[in-house]
Amino acid sequence: MTGASGFVGSRLCPALVEAGHTVRAMTRHPDRYSGAGEPVAGDVGDEASLRRALEGCRAAYYLVHSLASADFQQRDAAAARAFGRAAAGAGVRRIVYLGGLGEDSDDLSAHLRSRREVERLLAEGGVPVTVLRAGIVVGHGGVSWEITRQLVAHLPAMVTPRWVHTRTQPIAVADVVRYLVGVLEAPEAEGRVFEVGGPEVLEYVEMLTRVAEIQGRRLFVVPVPLLTPQLSSRWLALVTDVDVQTGRSLVDSMSNEVVVRDDAIRGVVPIEPMSYDEAVLTALGERARERREARAGRGGTGLRGRRA
């Protein structure tokens, strides 16, 4: 498992353990890892370390990307190529990758083009790759969700770019995890690409207003056609925790419609994904619980912590 301590990986590791799998959690600092599974040293930039980490594994989850770097496309390509080779050399029988939705016929953003390239490069070594493509993943700690939550929290009224009317199909992180576990246990999923999403197709502006309504807030949105991606990313960095480079990578992708066109996954992993409102309530509940625990751990001072 790469990205074992990340947004999705930290949830997927315990889910796999609970499902009866033996999990090796790859990290650059195994002495600091406290999550589920057995920590093992490895770095996607060091192919020799990948071979050691993957030795004896039947399957490998690849949950790595480098949005915060200006050269993220080159970094992700090099890492995927090395991981595919190392997996083949270690005798891994399947790689599972979480990629991004988007029509190949569209003018895909650099972010989404990179996700497609990673799919291809992972498979170059000869190991079958199962790909799950998702759009916005809703859950506490996820970058896309945090942008949504913090915009609503900080701005009762906002001037927004045209991409607020782009359609997307958000999915709860818990459902992404259920799909990721499910495809591992389904032989017919080997070497296939699946699209995953929640039950609702929403514009970004609808996502924002729904979050505001759930929290009892009123939100006024005024789209501005000439707000450029560069200005949009700086605007996001100003009012949220996201850095300018990550914001730019994500903003570029928000002009691409990310909607499920093929629901074949439902026949392989027959679950009922939760609604957007339920996913939002779950994410807000996780955040509130984390903040309560953090305050209790600091003797109730509440003086530190993440941005509101």
Please give a structural write-up.
The radius of gyration is 19 Å and the shape is globular. The protein has eleven helices and twelve strands. It has helices at 9-18, 47-54, 72-89, 110-123, 143-154, 173-184, 204-214, 229-239, 244-253, 265-268, 276-297, and strands at 24-27, 38-41, 59-62, 94-100, 129-134, 137-138, 157-160, 167-168, 171-172, 193-195, 202-203, 220-223. The model is unreliable at 299-308 (pLDDT under 50). The chain has one domain (9-294): Rossmann fold, CATH 3.40.50. The longest helix is centred in the C-terminal third of the chain and has 22 residues, at 276-297. With 308 residues, the chain is an alpha/beta fold. The two termini are 31 Å apart.
CATH architecture: 3-Layer(aba) Sandwich
Low-confidence stretches: 299-308
Q: What is the number of strand segments?
A: 12
Percentage of β-strand residues: 5-15%
- Quote the distance from N terminus to C terminus: 31 Å
Helix content: 40-55%
Named CATH topology: Rossmann fold
> Which structural class do you get from the secondary structure elements?
alpha/beta
N-to-C series of helices and strands: HEEHEHEHEEHEEEHEEHEHHHH
Oligomer: single chain
What is the average per-residue confidence, as pLDDT, rounded to a whole number?
85
Strand order of the largest sheet: 3-4-5-10
Shape: globular
What is the helix tally? Answer: 11
**Total count of domains:** 1
